[in-house]
Amino acid sequence: MLKLLAPISAALALAPAKPEIISASGRDRRQPPSWYPNGPVAWARERGLEPEDVAEEPKQPAPALRSKATASWLRLVKDLDRRPTRDRARELIETRVPSEALDWLRDMIREEDWLALRLVGHDRTAEEIRERALWAARRWEAMHVPPTPPAAPGVPDETDDITPPAGPRPR
Description:
This protein is mainly α. It has helices at residues 2-14, 39-46, 73-80, 86-96, 102-111, 114-121, 126-144.
């Protein structure tokens, strides 16, 4: 057995040095584990190493700032009724309705008809809100268009034909 051990030891001594093998955990042994609270310098000194010998921890980019979630339609309608948030809520709601419905929307806000605004956006997607707002605006315009007065029977209207009607003339 000793005869076999001597050549193996000699072969290993003459073999070139192998690169450092990374542990099964996948973590560089020169880096402190994630749970270690004191940082890489303390980690190195506790193990008798100089801090310069410890591989620098890769810098992670700062996380991107997430934008705030857009407020729901109902939240914006509630904010219209609050003095501090009224202007901002009005601006946000105006961006969500088509331009054809802005007159209706401004009239609803002026009259403080929160129920009509809630009904437009209750449990609906952005596209459905646009469609409902346009539908409500058309309905509102139809209700607010002043009726045209009928023309007097003997007075010709500009749209009437000037030629007399065909048939016998009344006496």
